[in-house]
Specification:
Layout (H helix, E strand, L loop, with lengths): L1 H15 L3 H8 L3 H9 L7 H10 L4 H15 L40 H28 L12 E3 L8 H4 L20 H6 L5 E5 L6 H14 L7 E6 L10 H12 L13 H7 L3 E6 L6 H12 L5 E5 L1 H11 L7 E5 L4 H7 L6 E5 L5 E7 L2 H9 L5 H7 L3 H12 L18 H18 L19 H14 L21 H27 L4 H28 L10 E3 L10 H36 L7 H31 L1 E3 L8 H38 L10 H22 L2 H15 L7 H10 L3 E4 L2 E4 L2 H14 L5 H5 L3
Parallel strand pairs: 2-5, 2-6, 3-4, 4-5
Antiparallel strand pairs: 1-6, 7-8, 9-10, 11-12
Helix pairs in contact: 1-3, 1-5, 2-4, 4-5, 6-9, 10-11, 12-13, 15-16, 16-18, 17-18, 18-19, 19-28, 20-21, 20-25, 21-22, 22-23, 23-24, 24-25, 25-26
Length: 818
């Protein structure tokens, strides 16, 4: 029962709040071994290895007993499952002869019923998640205008047999039994009924780009929730393109997406794990994995293998070609999965839909006044499609065979009466299907930005909606589409906290240096001007020297982070909480304190070295000291060490204490991009109000302690209280501000997206309003806490057009960026 071992290990690790890498570091077991055990790929369960993992995960006696019992059953499959007593061989799928896979998929995961308090918490969380998912996708369906004037028909046929499992495996029949097949006939209105006919609960939806896969998944989720019983799984749509199966397991990725899009699931369940982890482990979430084809080419086979290593029910969508290549590479389809393939729209579908989206045409007769003749501007196009004569009909019918292209054509012609769709019949201008599709993609953004949309009423303080115009909107959207291109793969999630990645590494480091220098310099000038009768010349000199020194120190730390793969900060998902009166100090807060103290200590030491250098330069310029004098150099080195210890220990102590007091952010509603930004801003500002005074006190008092300890050892040292408070205030206030704007998601958003990118013309001055407006116009869609372009083809078109118009963003030059 390899899945039983993996399930128990995942639960223990989730309860301990550790990553696979952290467990590997604490246990001495390799990450590869841990990953294989958790995913059920390892059949060699060594007692010593499991003991090491149990010790690292701080497993209790009951957990160890269950783990060892599961291990014994895994070695003696005939004994049956320790919970159900069912022999293991009866739950193994039949072999797939067409592909001859090396291993069959593991049996379904069987979990013991949770205790009463846990069950009650999971029931409440399930109901809350179901309500939020229903509300979100109902709003998204309305935003996309699916029902205006009526939903385009989405039909399908059975997927090719080579891309699906055997019918007996799909129906989970025992060995020797035969199946007459699974009836997959239906349409968009009956998709949930079709899904319920599949005993395994696994369905693959194939179709070409724009064929309606996303619309089908939304309707599937809404219909399933409408008829769901309280104990049913909650269907949740996950955009699969952001998953890297070589870096994280499917379980960890699902939990991470749930926490990002539903922050309230970060609350702790009675068992100690987050509600998101508990819901996934209790099999209360039905993953609807949208966009298998959006995975990087090199990740599709590992992703399919990872899915085959699990037994959870799921729905997977993909373009047929990409999925077929992955199946061929893995030598196995998605085990236990049925498959359907969406078909094209017919000319009759277009004839029923397009005329109802356009106003009747008005024709002038004999020079008199015009009158409506009952026809529409689509008459000529529809007549050609019915006739299918010449070289124009087949190309146009194929191009308009997907809901995506029909919606683009409707937006471009039906909603802009001055344009005539008859131009699509020009065989010289549009000799092939691809030319028609590119024409519709190119005309979509200008069309939606030429029309006015109704103003949203959000109170008297709301600013008016932006009206950027087609050209500027297309340029800004093109930059955003280009920003999603990466060297390893193309991303599809447009996250506001990742927009800073669009800048070069050197530009980001320069922004940190300038921001820090400005924060510290302004803070020192203001404090110096109010601390006594000091001339403005000396005040400005102090700021001019101390600010850049601090900026270079922060820039060095940020550069080290970027070179090691960091530099991008997710939104804050924690808050500060004081421990209860009777709560002891556990191991987790101590570990959090030690880890944060060690990471901040070095950065604070570098900042202290910079401050000591600035003091020497100030004295050299103001008191005319010889900087190369041996006594001056010796004093500077001593100051570097002392200030480095003061700033390093003070900052490490404060940040370590905050890490020990951090608790999950309790947000009662689901995350949207703008709501997550507002929440992050409020959280960071509260942290700033705590950091500034704590750093001030830690530096002022900590400096006194360091000086007392080192006095005499390094020579005579002084640390007057007034000077200590001044240095502490500069370091506390200026350092806290610099940290906020350089090392938090909201701070980088302000510096990069509200200042830098608008100054260079790549984004508007109010990016939030622009993104929200693009969403309301239908160019973007919301997927939880991130935006996505309406369709990946629109993203590709806008990004390519942007690079063609701006030579400095050519792919060759971009490829040299980090």
């Amino acid at each position: 029962m390899t899945d039983q071992v993996g399930t128990l290990l995942r639960r223990l690790r989730s309860r301990a709040g550790l990553t696979q890498e952290q467990v590997a570091e604490r246990s001495g077991v390799s990450v590869r071994t841990i990953r294989r055990l958790e995913t059920g790929k390892s059949n060699d369960h060594r007692m010593g290895t499991l003991n090491l993992l149990a010790n690292a995960l701080e497993a209790g006696p009951e957990d160890r007993q269950r783990l060892m019992a599961t291990l014994t059953n895994a070695r003696n499959p005939a004994d049956g499952d320790p919970v159900t007593g069912i022999p293991a061989q009866h739950s193994a799928p039949a072999p797939i002869a067409a592909f001859a896979p090396e291993q069959s998929a593991p049996p379904p995961e069987i979990a013991a019923p949770p205790p009463g308090p846990i069950r009650a918490a999971l029931t409440a969380a399930t109901e809350e998640l179901a309500a939020e998912v229903r509300r979100r996708w109902k709003r998204e369906e309305e935003q996309r205008g699916v029902h205006d004037p009526f939903p385009l028909p989405v039909r399908w046929q059975a997927a090719p047999a080579a891309l699906t499992d055997h019918s007996e495996n799909i129906q989970r029949l025992p060995p020797g039994a035969t199946s007459p097949g699974v009836d997959l006939s239906g349409d968009l209105r009956s998709v949930t009924e079709v899904y319920r006919r599949i005993s395994s609960g696994r369905l693959v939806v194939l179709g070409r780009a724009g064929s309606g896969k996303s619309v089908l998944t939304i309707r599937f989720v809404l219909d399933l929730l409408a008829a769901a019983a309280p104990a049913d799984r909650v269907p949740v749509i996950f955009s699969l393109g952001s998953w890297d199966p070589t870096a994280s397991t499917l379980r960890d990725w699902l939990i991470d997406r749930l926490l990002r899009d539903h922050p309230y699931l970060a609350r702790r369940a009675p068992g100690g794990s987050t509600l998101a982890s508990a819901l996934v482990d209790a099999d209360l979430v039905l993953p609807v994995l949208d966009g298998f084809d959006e995975l990087a080419e090199g990740l599709r086979r590992p992703a399919l293998e990872a899915l085959n290593a699990t037994s959870l029910p799921l729905v997977l969508t993909s373009r047929r070609g990409e999925f077929a290549e992955a199946v061929q590479a893995a030598r196995a389809p998605l085990v236990w999965a049925a498959g359907i393939e969406l078909t094209d729209l017919t000319p009759d579908d277009l004839a029923a839909y397009l005329p109802r989206t356009a106003r009747p045409v008005t024709r002038a007769a004999g020079g008199g006044s015009g009158k409506e003749d009952g026809g529409t501007l689509w008459d000529a196009v529809l007549a050609e499609l019915r006739a299918r004569s010449g070289d124009r009909g087949p190309h146009l019918a194929r191009a308009l065979g997907t809901p995506l292209m029909v919606v683009l054509a409707r937006t471009m012609y039906s909603e802009a009466p001055e344009r005539d769709p008859a131009e699509l019949l020009d065989a010289g201008r549009f000799p092939a299907e691809h030319a028609i599709e590119e024409h519709l993609l190119a005309g979509f953004v200008p069309a939606v930005y030429r029309r006015r949309i109704p103003e949203r009423h959000a109170g008297p303080r709301r600013r008016p909606e932006p009206d950027p115009g087609p050209e500027r909107a297309e340029r800004w959207l093109g930059f955003l589409a280009h920003h999603l291109v990466r060297l390893d793969r193309e991303r599809h999630d447009l996250a506001w906290w990742q927009l800073g990645d669009s800048l070069r590494r050197s530009t980001r480091i320069l922004a940190v240096v300038l921001t820090t220098a400005l924060c510290v310099a302004v803070t020192e000038c203001l404090l110096a001007s109010s601390s006594g009768p000091i001339g403005w010349g000396e005040i400005l000199l102090q700021g001019v020297l101390t600010g850049p020194a601090a900026g270079l120190a922060f820039g060095a730390v940020y550069a080290a982070m970027t070179w090691s793969g960091g530099g991008s900060f997710p939104p804050v998902q924690v808050r500060l909480r004081l421990p209860g009166r009777h709560a002891g100090i556990g191991r987790r807060p101590v570990r959090a304190f030690a880890a944060r103290f060690g990471s901040v200590l070095l950065g604070g030491f570098v900042l202290g070295v910079g401050v000591a250098s600035a003091i020497t330069l100030e004295r050299g310029l103001y008191d005319r000291l010889e900087l190369l004098n041996p006594a001056v150099l010796q004093g500077t080195l001593i100051n570097m060490l002392v200030f480095g210890l003061i700033f390093g220990s003070g900052a490490g102590l404060v940040f370590g204490l905050l890490a020990a007091l951090e608790a999950p952010l309790d947000v009662s509603s689901a995350a949207t991009p703008s709501a997550l930004l507002a929440t992050d801003r409020a959280t960071v500002c509260r942290q700033l109000l705590v950091l500034a005074p704590l750093l001030t006190v830690a530096i002022a008092l900590g400096g006194r302690v360091v000086v007392v300890l080192l006095d005499g050892l390094l020579g005579p040292l002084t640390w007057p209280l007034a000077d200590g408070l001044f240095v502490g205030a500069v370091g506390g206030i200026g350092g806290a501000l610099a940290y906020t704007f350089s090392f938090t998601a909201w701070g980088q958003w302000v510096v990069v997206c509200r200042v830098w990118l608008p100054l260079t013309g790549r984004l508007p001055w109010d990016p939030v309003a622009f993104l929200d407006d693009a969403y309301r116009r239908g160019v973007l869609r919301q997927t939880g806490a991130v935006y996505q372009f309406r369709h990946v083809r629109l993203q590709h078109h806008l990004g390519r057009s942007f690079r063609e118009r701006h030579a400095r963003y050519a792919p060759a030059r971009f490829a040299r960026r980090p």
